[in-house]
């Protein structure tokens, strides 16, 4: 395509719009249906109501699942960010044999098919008697999510002037305090963004959680149970709320990262 | 290796003044020798410039002093005390970085107080010292700004304030003016020079810029390929380069390579492609007949005359004017020699035959005293 020509521009924007519709139409529909009075969704919606929201909020099992998900995602975000930071810092600061391998290994988990990762987690965790526990879900999600944190923080560190750390040492500040006052401070936006992204990924993650969770169901697993029994419109409510949460978190993360870059 | 062109009163007082001694330091990175058997002393209260082309080891030298590199061999002494093992954060020499390395997430005032915090200076004392230096560097109005909101010159002042607020005995500077435009660079040179004189602290200044070194330093160490070529006062280095490298680097002399044909009673004859010239010996290495050497002729020590020099004088050669460079009251002529080299000759405009024409043939001659021979 010739860039700049009007026709090609039109084609390009049309293409982008199509992709966006393809991606977001199901989400938008689910959101619209969540406000519908009807049990079986039909378009156009004739009567709006909040009855499915009321139902969802008064469902005890759903509450428990939501709470579990929030707890798991928060702990996963905290752990993944710490591991991700030190992984990225090791990469930034030191040169050692097998460094490439170390980084590739660190970034690998999300590229493994989820079913295989989940199955692997299930077999290893059951040997440790951790399958079916929240700890088990946390461990699995940390493995899966840390690469996101590592990648984001590594990107930020790559922008750090290599002289900043030695400059701090030169002014009389030791290595550890420098790590805190200079490196962590510089990476703070990326660390916060990474925490939000990891939270969002863990919050929505279904496959691995399905393998390793027993009775301790997280929100996505709970949704599956709901759908299995009956096509409850409550699913639309949950979908809408969790999509809104994720989009908000990722939006904030993108904002923080892009601001830190300027 | 170490030059002692500066008058040294005696070993005791020499040591007493020596704030810092670099004693046979070597440092190798992978397969490249960054510095090799480096020896020099930094005297208290002096402005010393370490100068050389890129890759000569000058920045490594500074990093060794700051403790950012550990020497492979040799000893660094601070007031007579070995400091090889002192970590960077325990060395009392703040460094002004080439790229300034200011903290982008801190305000101007926070940058300046950074080192004071580490030293446990608190409360009123810290505030007073920070204010004092913000004032001295004329950046008081900018105290709450962030670094990216400052101009190059302002950043420079913040970097200086951040180091000098620590009241160091010695300041290390790594090409601190290289990022500034020419106009600002000259102004900052004055600021630096004034600071160094007022505070009486030692400046150790690394640069590749001859003009900066000669404008500010009272001693210059010239490095090449990891070693010291010459160490002395600026005027000595300018007038009496000790090696062909220094002569070429400084550029105050014309250099003509040749072979020593005889050397007796301080009179040296050197045979070159442009003829045999009589001169005197100079430099660190002895000159023996048959040795390769270079004849150095001062750019400002020549006379130009019309014709091709039938006067029979030994020290002269024929050339053809190819270009001229005006420089105020001085003019430098670039003259092509018979071998295709370029000989530079400087004339005052009010003296001599001003206005030599392009392509005109001239006879260049010089007194023996304005030339010398250096062994390779």
Helix content of chain A: over 70%
CATH superfamily of the largest domain in chain B: P-loop containing nucleotide triphosphate hydrolases
CATH superfamily of the largest domain in chain A: MetI-like
**Low-confidence regions of chain B:** 1-15
Largest sheet of chain A: none
Domain count of chain A: the total is 2
Number of individual domains of chain B: 2
CATH architecture tag of the largest domain in chain A? Orthogonal Bundle
CATH architecture of the largest domain in chain B: 3-Layer(aba) Sandwich
What shape does the CA trace of chain B take? elongated
Q: What name does the CATH topology of the largest domain in chain B carry?
A: Rossmann fold
Count of DSSP H/I helices of chain B: 9
Chain pair sharing the greatest interface: A-B, 18 and 24 residues
| Name of the level-1 CATH class of the largest domain in chain A | Mainly Alpha
Low-confidence stretches of chain A: none
Radius of gyration of chain B: 25 Å
| Helix percentage of chain B | 10-25%
N-to-C order of helices and strands of chain B: HEEEHEEEHHHEHEHEEHHEEEEEEEEEE
CATH topology of the largest domain in chain A: MetI-like fold
What does this protein look like?
The complex is a heterodimer of chains A (262) and B (376). Chain A is mainly α. In chain A, 76% of the residues lie in helices and 0% in strands. Chain A folds into 2 domains: 1-49, no CATH class; 59-261, MetI-like (MetI-like fold, Orthogonal Bundle), CATH 1.10.3720. Chain A contains 11 helices and no strands. In chain A, helix 6 crosses helix 8 (175-204). The radius of gyration of chain A is 22 Å and the shape is globular. Chain B has 376 residues and is α+β, with helices and mostly antiparallel strands. Chain B folds into 2 domains: 11-239, Rossmann fold, CATH 3.40.50.300; 244-375, Beta Barrel (OB fold (Dihydrolipoamide Acetyltransferase, E2P)). In chain B, 24% of the residues lie in helices and 36% in strands. The relative contact order of chain B is 0.12. A 6-stranded mixed beta sheet of chain B has the order 6-7-8-3-9-10, with helices on both faces. A 5-stranded antiparallel beta sheet of chain B has the order 13-12-11-14-20. The A-B interface holds A 161, 163-164, 166-175, 177, 182, 185-186, 188 and B 66-68, 87-91, 93-95, 97, 99, 101, 103-105, 114-115, 118-119, 162-163, 166.
């Amino acid at each position: 395509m010739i860039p700049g020509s009007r026709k090609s521009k039109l084609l390009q924007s049309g293409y982008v719009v199509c992709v966006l519709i393809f991606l977001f139409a199901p989400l938008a529909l689910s959101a619209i249906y969540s406000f519908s009075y009807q049990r079986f969704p039909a378009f156009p919606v004739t009567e709006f109501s909040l009855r499915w929201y009321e139902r969802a909020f008064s469902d005890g099992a759903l509450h428990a699942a939501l709470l579990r998900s929030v707890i798991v995602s928060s702990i996963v975000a905290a752990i993944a960010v710490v591991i991700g930071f030190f992984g990225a810092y090791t990469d930034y600061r030191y040169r050692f044999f097998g460094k490439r391998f170390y980084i590739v290994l660190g970034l690998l988990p999300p590229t493994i098919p989820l079913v295989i990762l989940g199955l692997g987690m299930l077999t290893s965790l059951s040997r440790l008697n951790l399958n079916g526990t929240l700890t088990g879900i946390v461990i699995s999600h940390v493995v899966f999510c840390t690469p996101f944190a590592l990648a984001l923080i590594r990107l930020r560190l790559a922008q750090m002037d290599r002289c900043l750390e030695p400059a701090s040492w030169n002014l009389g500040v030791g290595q550890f305090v420098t790590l805190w006052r200079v490196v962590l401070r510089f990476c703070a936006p990326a660390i916060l963004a990474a925490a939000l992204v990891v939270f969002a990924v863990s919050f929505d993650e279904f496959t691995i959680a399905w393998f390793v969770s027993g009775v301790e169901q997280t929100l996505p697993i709970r949704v599956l149970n709901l759908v299995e029994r009956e096509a409850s419109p409550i699913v639309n409510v949950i979908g809408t709320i969790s999509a809104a949460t994720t989009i908000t978190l990722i939006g904030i993360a993108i904002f923080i990262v892009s601001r830190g870059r300027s | 290796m170490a030059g002692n062109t500066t008058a040294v009163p005696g070993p005791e007082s020499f040591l007493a003044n020596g704030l810092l001694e670099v004693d046979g330091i070597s440092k190798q990175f992978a397969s490249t020798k960054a510095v090799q058997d480096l020896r020099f002393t930094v005297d208290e209260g002096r402005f010393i410039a370490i100068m050389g082309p890129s890759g000569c080891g000058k920045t490594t030298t500074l990093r060794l002093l700051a403790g950012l590199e550990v020497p492979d061999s040799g000893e660094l002494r601070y007031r007579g005390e070995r400091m090889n093992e002192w970590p960077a954060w325990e060395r009392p020499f703040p460094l002004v970085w080439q790229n300034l390395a200011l903290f982008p997430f801190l305000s101007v005032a926070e940058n300046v107080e950074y080192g004071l915090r580490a030293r446990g200076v608190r409360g009123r004392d810290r505030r007073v010292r920070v204010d004092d230096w913000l004032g001295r560097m004329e950046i008081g109005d900018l105290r709450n700004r962030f670094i990216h909101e400052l101009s190059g010159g302002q950043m420079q002042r913040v970097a200086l304030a951040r180091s000098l607020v620590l009241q160091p005995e010695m300041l290390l500077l790594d090409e601190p003016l290289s990022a500034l435009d020419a106009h600002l660079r000259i102004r900052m040179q004055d600021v630096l020079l004034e600071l160094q004189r007022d505070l009486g602290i030692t400046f150790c200044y690394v640069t590749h810029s001859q003009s900066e070194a000669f404008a500010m330093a009272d001693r210059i160490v010239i490095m090449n390929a990891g070693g010291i070529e010459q160490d002395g006062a600026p005027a000595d280095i300018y007038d009496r380069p000790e090696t062909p490298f220094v002569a070429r680097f400084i550029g105050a002399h014309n250099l003509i390579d040749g072979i020593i044909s005889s050397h007796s009673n301080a009179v040296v004859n050197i045979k070159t492609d442009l003829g045999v010239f009589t001169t005197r010996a100079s430099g660190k290495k002895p000159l023996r007949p048959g040795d390769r050497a270079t004849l150095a002729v001062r750019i400002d020590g020549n006379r130009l005359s019309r014709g091709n020099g039938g006067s029979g004088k030994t020290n002269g050669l024929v050339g053809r004017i190819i270009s001229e460079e005006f420089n105020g009251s001085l003019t430098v002529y670039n003259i092509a020699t018979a071998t295709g080299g370029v000989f530079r000759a400087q004339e005052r405009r009010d003296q001599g035959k001003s206005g030599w024409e392009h392509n005109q043939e001239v006879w260049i001659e010089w007194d023996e005293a304005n030339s010398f021979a250096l062994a390779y």
